[in-house]
Design brief:
Helix content: 25-40%
Shape: globular
CATH topology: Rossmann fold
Order of helices and strands: EEEHEEHEHHHHEHEHEEH
Number of helices: 9
Bound molecules: adenosine-5'-diphosphate, magnesium ion
Oligomer: single chain
Strand order of the largest sheet: 6-7-8-3-9-10
């Protein structure tokens, strides 16, 4: 069957992202212990856990920004090559890092264009401005002049510019005003309903429950629990999430 013959709503075979038994060290410090996460096609999975358990480290390994000492990383039926972050966007993974990491001295337009360089340039998709109208209004402004919420929208817009099949977001609501947090939630839900697979790191429990359908909990470098968000009970929350 050709790709074009797949009708809307029909899930492709195999998981979108399947990461298993990842071990990683910072120097002598063993940080990830056989950690993993699975994102089925079209799912929205929330990677959860307290500060310092290794969520960002696992995302960086997935993005090829950190080398694991062992582990299997598959995107669809293809292995993700280690230490080749530029290939991630090309195969269809968009990444919104923790802390946003936009370029404050560059204009909004140039920040968005950086999301296109992996595809060899082209126009910023109209879709980005449809989702984030504020970015069109601020195209000529410097990234650093935007509010925290607008910078987060810019970081998401940049990740979407390359047209990914999987969007990875690391704490997109961190340090952002509540009204923008809700808007970002709406956008993630909308993108996911349209077929984009999502892997989200999020510490705000109500936000995670609203946006994601599945959870994957980490504790001290280990993956300790996975399941349907509707089944995330008080016991797991007390043991692994609340501080
Ligand atoms: N660049 C680094 N060098 C050394 N240790 C690090 C580095 N980054 C993170 N760590 C440590 O690795 C552990 C996991 O960090 P991180 O993945 O950022 O956790 P999380 O995202 O779950 O808060 C923490 O103990 C943290 O202090
Ligand atoms: Mg983190």
């Amino acid at each position: 069957m050709t790709v074009a013959a797949v009708t809307a709503g029909e899930a492709p075979a195999g998981p979108a992202l399947n990461v298993s038994r990842v071990n990683q060290f910072y120097g002598q410090s063993h940080t990830l212990w056989d950690a993993g996460v699975v994102v089925p096609p079209g799912a929205c999975v929330c990677l959860m856990g307290r500060n310092g358990v290794g969520k960002t480290t696992l995302l960086k390994v997935i993005m090829g920004l950190l080398p694991p000492t062992s582990g299997t990383l598959m995107f669809g039926d293809k292995p993700l090559a280690p230490k080749r972050p530029e290939l991630r966007a090309r195969v269809g993974i968009g990444y919104v890092p923790q802390g946003r990491e936009i370029f404050p001295q560059l204009t909004v337009e140039d920040n968005l264009r950086l999301g296109l360089t992996v595809k060899g340039g082209g126009e910023i998709p109209a879709r980005v401005f449809e989702l984030f109208p504020v970015l069109r209004k601020m195209l000529g402004r410097r990234g650093g002049d935007l509010s925290g919420g607008q910078q987060q929208q810019l970081a998401i817009g940049r990740a979407l510019a390359s047209g990914p099949a999987l969007l990875i977001l690391d704490e997109p609501t961190e340090g952002i005003q509540p009204n923008i947090v809700h808007e970002i939630g709406d956008i993630i839900i909308r993108l996911n309903r349209e077929g984009l697979s999502v892997l989200l790191v999020e510490q705000k429990l109500p936000f995670a429950r609203r946006v994601a359908d599945t959870f994957c909990i980490m504790d001290r470098g280990h993956t300790v629990a996975e399941g349907k968000m509707a089944d995330l009970g008080d016991d797991l929350v007390r043991r692994h999430l609340v501080v």
